[in-house]
Amino acid sequence: MFALVGRTPLAVYTVRVITLSVLVLQGKWFEIPVPELRTCHLCLLEDPSAGCISGSEKCTISSSSPCMVITIYYNTRVRFLIRGCGQHNSYRCQEKRNTYFSEYWYQAQCCQYDYCNSWSSPQLQSS
């Protein structure tokens, strides 16, 4: 979000990653960056028994966006997980969907606090 002050009342506009606060001194205004970020686990491909295979690190996103885990199933068994920042166009929060292969399907789960998409997160285990 940006907070802007000029000759009009305070106006708030939505933007992707940061918040700007404004300091007004003697009729001049200055923008001061104030981050509002969420940190999530990032793993491009995780095997439940072997752990993260590729892309193990963290990512940051606007605090208004969620962390996400996409669980890929083979029949009823968890086959792979993908962890990351934000909701993606192809995967919506709390969505369950079949894939092109009839035995595989996925579930996308989202959460709203730092590192909430870790494998030990109670928020994700209860979903």
TrEMBL record:
<dbReference type="InterPro" id="IPR045860">
    <property type="entry name" value="Snake_toxin-like_sf"/>
</dbReference>
<dbReference type="Pfam" id="PF00021">
    <property type="entry name" value="UPAR_LY6"/>
</dbReference>
<dbReference type="InterPro" id="IPR038773">
    <property type="entry name" value="LY6G5B"/>
</dbReference>
<dbReference type="InterPro" id="IPR016054">
    <property type="entry name" value="LY6_UPA_recep-like"/>
</dbReference>
<dbReference type="GO" id="GO:0009897">
    <property type="term" value="C:external side of plasma membrane"/>
</dbReference>
<protein>
    <submittedName>
        <fullName>Lymphocyte antigen 6 family member G5B</fullName>
    </submittedName>
</protein>
<feature type="domain" description="UPAR/Ly6">
    <location>
        <begin position="38"/>
        <end position="118"/>
    </location>
</feature>
